[in-house]
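Hi support team,

I've been running sequence recovery on a batch of backbones for a student project. Most finish fine, but this one hangs at about 90% for roughly twenty minutes before it completes. I'm not sure whether the input is malformed or the queue is just slow. I've pasted the structure tokens below so you can try to reproduce it. Let me know if you need the job ID as well.

Thanks,
M.K.
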């Protein structure tokens, strides 16, 4: 079951699953990642029954338009045929706002902005703001150079900027 930040069931979302690290630190074999679009027509009593996942340790996340992603749920699937009851809660998202200007301080319209999570370090300056590790918000600047990446969750991120006539930049 996927709920919004107020506890109301969500009927249109994407369920993302990937294999968790094994106890020895290595990746588990076969079927390492899946993404399933879920709509109201696929729900039975408000629940989604996803089949075809191999037994083992999985990390499950849900995302939906108008919401920030859920926290990641660590789930162990046994080889006993039982389906565990899983509940994911989407977070209320924030908006990352910014402005892109050239070296003279003039706004750059039509730039493409990509916000990605970052481990930090190196020459890329990182910000503490609102971004989910499963989302890569993309926005465009308006005539005044302003942009907004919507429905993002807490994380550390880097902003990459591309604009016609300018070298790509990362901050």
């Amino acid at each position: 079951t996927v709920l919004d930040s107020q506890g109301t069931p969500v009927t249109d979302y994407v369920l993302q699953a990937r294999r968790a690290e094994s106890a020895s630190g290595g990746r588990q074999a076969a079927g390492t990642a899946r993404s399933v679009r879920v709509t109201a027509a696929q729900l039975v009593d408000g629940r989604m029954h996803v089949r075809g996942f191999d037994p083992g340790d999985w990390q499950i996340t849900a995302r939906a338009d108008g919401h920030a992603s859920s926290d990641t749920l660590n789930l162990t699937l046994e080889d006993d045929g039982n389906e565990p009851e899983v509940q994911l809660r989407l977070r209320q998202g924030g908006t990352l706002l910014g402005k892109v200007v050239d070296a003279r301080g003039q706004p750059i319209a039509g730039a493409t902005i990509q916000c990605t999570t970052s481990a930090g370090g190196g020459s890329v300056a990182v910000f503490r703001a609102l971004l989910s590790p499963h989302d890569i918000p993309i926005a465009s600047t308006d005539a005044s150079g302003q942009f907004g990446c919507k429905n993002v969750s807490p994380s550390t991120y880097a902003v990459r900027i591309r604009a016609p006539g300018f070298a790509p930049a990362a901050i």
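--
Follow-up from support: It reproduced on our side and the slowdown came from queue contention, not your input. DSSP finds no helices and 14 strands in the chain. No action needed from you.
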